Amino acid sequence: TRRVMYKTAIDFNGTKWVASAGTDVTFAGTEVAVGLAYYNEMRTLSDKSDDVCGMFTTNNSDLISNNQQALAFDKQGTLWVGTIGGVNRIINPSAVMNNGTPIFVNIRALANLNVREIVVDALDNKWLATASGLFVVDPDGENVLQTITMDNSPLPTNNLYALAYDENSGKMYIGTDKGLYSVQTNAVKPIAVYDMKVYPQPFDTKRNRLLTIDGLV
Fold first, then answer.
1. In CA terms, which of 46, 169, 196, 200 is 20 to 30 Å from 122?
2. What are φ and ψ of residue 190, in 5° steps?
């Protein structure tokens, strides 16, 4: 028996979520199902009495597959889970802190895709590297904004494995089985301080017709 750990993501509460795959494993004589695991030591690593942990599988939740390959938290705190058979959205992962059951949403627009990586851009759109090309969906996953494949781009293959995103430049790097490629996006992180110039100063409504504001994005 063997268990493979793919990705780890940490939510706003410090809960660690771990994607895994493989055959069932035996722990202390008991079979343990492979699935999406979560763990929170409650900032007291040596005190196990307050730990929160558990596992979601296809048997005890609406998880699409027990083989998950990608995890990503978006800007709303929603956990996106990429599997070999599509994508789940867990809209309230914090429910596990109170022994609750999170709500799993199946993203129908991405049904049956083999998803290997999920990246959230500065606009909260999701970029997904799959075995069928690169997909971009809106913040809620209701609409596919763009599909990039070898048929409509310079990509030499649809077999994608990894993504890396530079939010300062908006550039997305794509790892394939035939090399590394990149695409320039319009999702750029807003700068914290603007070097704005407003003129003429002073602005006289009787004499001046135009007010110029320079330095905005």
1. 196
2. -65, 140
3-state secondary structure the chain: CCEEEEEEEECCCCCEEEEEEECCEEECCEEECCCEEEEECCCCCCCHHHCEEEEECCCCCCCCCCCEEEEEECCCCCEEEEECCEEEEECCHHHHHHCCCCCEEECHHHCCCCEEEEEECCCCCEEEEECCEEEEECCCCCCEEEEECCCCCCCCCCCEEEEEEECCCCEEEEEECCEEEEEECCCCCCCCCCCCEEECCCCCCCCCCCCEEECCC
Extract the tokens encoding 26: 């035996």
Residue 144 falls in which region: left (phi positive, over 0), alpha (psi -120 to 50) or beta: beta
The string of pLDDT tens digits covering residues 134-192 is 999 999 999 999 999 999 999 999 999 999 999 999 999 999 999 999 999 999 988 77
The first and second tokens of residue 118, run together, are: 């999920």
pLDDT score of 33 more than 90: no
Q: Amino acid letter at 176?
A: T
Instruction: Check residue 1 and give its pLDDT.
Output: 46
Report yes or no: 134 and 174 within 8 Å, Cβ to Cβ.
yes
Task: Report pLDDT digits (tens) over 85-132.
Answer: 999 999 999 999 999 989 999 999 999 999 999 999 999 999 999 999
- What single letter denotes the amino acid at residue 108? R
The residues that bridge with 63 in the sheet, in sequence order, are: none
Look up the pTM and report it: 0.84
Are 157 and 177 in contact, with CB atoms under 8 Å apart?
yes
